[in-house]
Automatic annotation (TrEMBL):
Name this polypeptide is given: SCP domain-containing protein
Lineage of the organism: Bacteria, Pseudomonadati, Pseudomonadota, Gammaproteobacteria, Thiotrichales
SCP domain: residues covered: 31-149
PANTHER family: SCP DOMAIN-CONTAINING PROTEIN (PTHR31157)
SUPFAM superfamilies assigned: PR-1-like
Coiled coil spans: none
N-terminal signal peptide: none
Organism encoding this protein: Thioflexithrix psekupsensis
Region described as Disordered: 1-22
InterPro entries attached to this UniProt entry: CAP_dom, CAP_sf
Length: 390
């Protein structure tokens, strides 16, 4: 919220005309300062999205005109409504607002000294940013600021000048035995990575699994994963995570085929004791999970009864998420991929165990391919390594 507090007054006043030259300069400076903070923790830079900036400027103008500070617009709109109004399609989004600060440096200092706002600025999954600034000398706080963060659903809407990186290379040869393939990769460049599993056309559909382990632990912040969902909820997709200490997390489900608006989610500790659900969640909605004890958890996702085959994603976000991660579900040659996205903040060696076939499940799949990709900061995925052509 920044240093100022929210005004209770909603009396409209006359704002200074937005989009003055200083506004453009302030937008560029805020972007620069955000990326400087992200660079300190080895995160990819954000690029400036025209659509997200439109949503941010709309809200700053609204706050300045109507003399208030809130995430809710004067017309009752939420930040997600303002984003969608621009036509921007996202898998994850967030917003910071502030009022009263007179410069980009001052407002960034306020945000970085606020836990929730700092978390948005340093979220590894975000790739794009919009910035809004409005000045109204007749309003209580005069200066009104908005940041809108996003991860686009499809192709990136902007690009950044990210520095090219050295490709990651495997440190040991591929080893496949008894329906499991194991790969050990040395990831030397910090960033956001995606392990993607696909099934060749000639292979049979079925269940698959992927385990990711490393001695130093995956970085805090969380991860996202997904897979194919079989018809009628006949087979579930799952992801697991380990909490190093009691932690409140957030969960979000997506459905990429557009066939389902809701999915069922259940979380079990040690895959035995239910601590959340099963409950039906709306796709694209961030759900807060009360504090969970330290330990190992499995989150299972199912489609509704009578649903067609689809393609889901699930994000688990929060601090203290480390160590190994297991994911899995249904896969076939045509409907979609299996994947997990995870941040890396320092050079580490990561071991991948790809499970398939009859030894994994009675409906185990044929042998999938494994690809490792990296997001250089512009929303695109750059191939790093593949089990087909390592």
């Amino acid at each position: 919220m920044g240093a100022a507090t929210c005004s209770s007054s909603t009396t409209p006043t006359t704002p200074t005309t937005p989009n003055t030259p200083s506004t453009t300069e302030y937008v560029a400076e805020v972007l620069k300062l955000v990326n400087a903070e992200r660079a300190k923790v080895s995160l990819n830079p954000l690029c400036l999205s025209t659509q997200l900036t439109q949503a941010a400027q709309l809200h700053s103008d609204d706050m300045a005109t109507n003399n208030f500070m809130s995430h809710t617009g004067s017309n009752g709109s939420k930040f997600s409504d303002r984003i969608e109004q621009t036509g921007y399609q996202y898998s994850r989004a967030g917003e910071n607002v502030a009022a009263g600060q007179t410069s980009p440096a001052e407002v960034m200092n306020s945000w970085m000294n606020s836990e929730g706002h700092r978390a948005n600025i340093l979220t590894p999954e975000f790739t794009e940013l919009g910035v809004g600034y409005a000045l109204n000398s007749n309003a209580q706080f005069k200066h009104y600021w908005t940041q809108v963060f996003g991860t686009p659903m499809g192709a990136a809407t902007c690009s950044s000048s990210a520095t090219p990186t050295t490709p990651t290379t495997p440190t040991t040869p591929t080893s496949c035995l008894d329906d499991a393939c194991r790969y050990s990769l040395n990831i030397s460049t910090p960033g956001f990575y995606v392990a993607r599993v696909s099934l060749p056309q000639e292979q049979r559909e079925g269940q698959w699994g992927l385990s990711i382990n490393n001695s130093s632990g995956l970085s805090d912040g969380g991860f996202s994963s997904g897979s194919v969902l079989r018809e009628n909820g006949e087979a579930f997709g799952f992801t697991s995570f380990y909490l190093t200490q009691p932690t409140a997390i957030q969960l979000e489900v997506q459905e990429y085929s557009g066939k389902m608006q809701q999915l069922s989610v259940q979380i079990k500790k040690n895959n035995q004791d239910a601590v959340f659900g099963p409950t039906t969640l709306n796709v694209g909605t961030l759900t807060s999970i009360p504090t969970l004890d330290a330990g190992y958890y499995v989150a299972a996702v199912k489609s509704p009864e009578g649903a067609a085959r689809g393609y889901f994603g699930i994000g688990i976000y929060g601090p203290n998420i480390q160590s190994s991660v297991d994911i899995g579900g249904m896969i076939d040659p045509t409907s979609g991929l299996g994947f997990i996205g995870f941040p890396v903040t320092k050079p580490i060696t990561v071991d991948f165990a790809l499970l398939f076939g009859q030894n994994y499940s009675t409906i185990g799949s044929g042998q999938p391919n494994l690809e490792i990709l990296r997001n250089p900061g512009d929303g695109n995925l750059v191939p790093v390594w593949s089990s087909v052509s390592p």
